[in-house]
Amino acid sequence: MKSSDLVIIGAGGVGRYVAEQLRTVPEWRQTWRLLGFVDDDPALQGQVIDDLEVLGNVDSLTRSRPCAVIIAIAASRSKKQLLSRLEHDHYFEYPSLIHPRAWVAASATLGKGALVYPGAHINHHVHLGEFVTVNMGVVLGHDTQVGDFCSIAPNAALAGHTHLGVGVEFGINACTIQNCHVGDWSRIGAGAVVIEAIPEATTAVGVPARPQGIA
What we know:
By secondary structure, the chain is an alpha/beta fold. The protein has helices at 13-24, 26-31, 76-86; strands at 4-9, 32-38, 48-49, 52-53, 68-71, 97-98, 103-104, 109-110, 115-116, 121-122, 127-128, 133-134, 139-140, 145-146, 151-152, 157-158, 163-164, 169-170, 175-176, 181-182, 187-188, 193-194, 202-205, 210-214. The termini are far apart.
C-alpha cells in the first residue's frame, strides 16, 4: 500500500505525541509518510525535533504540494484560527487519528481532524465535531455531543447527554453530571465538577464548578 504525505502543525507537546504515534502504530506507519512539523515560532523553524525537521511556518504549507495535515495544538481558539488560514487551500486532507487502544462505539460519529488518544472511551451515540482532541483516559458517556475545536484533557469524564459547545477546553480530571451544557468557548478547570449549565465564554472552576470570569 502506498503511503500518503503528512505534515504536523505544531511542534509542541501535542505535535511530538502525534509524531511518535505515527511512527509506532503499525497501521499509521504504513498509511502515512511523515514529512515533519510546521510551526509559527521562528525559534523552531529549521530545527530538528525528535528526528523530524520543522519545515517552516504554517503559511509555508500553502506553497507545498498537496498533503494531509494534522492540527496538533491543544488550544481551541488556535485550532480554529489555524484552520481559517488554511481553508482556502482545498487540497489539504484532515484525517482523524483514533488510537487502536481507544474504544469507540460503532454508533459514535467523529468529524474530520479528531485526535483520540489511547485509553479514551467513546460511548454509543456520542458525536464529536471537527478537530476535537480527546485525551488519554477520557470517558464520554452515551449521547454526549462535543462541538468543533473542543479539547478534553486526560481522565475527564462526561456523563450521558452532556453537551459541550464549540471550542470548549475541558480540564484534566474534570467531570459533568448527566444532561449538563457547557457554552461555546468556555473553559472548565482541572478537577471541576459541572452540575449545572455553564454560559458561553466562561471560565468555571471548583466543586461544584462556579463561573470565575471570562474565558
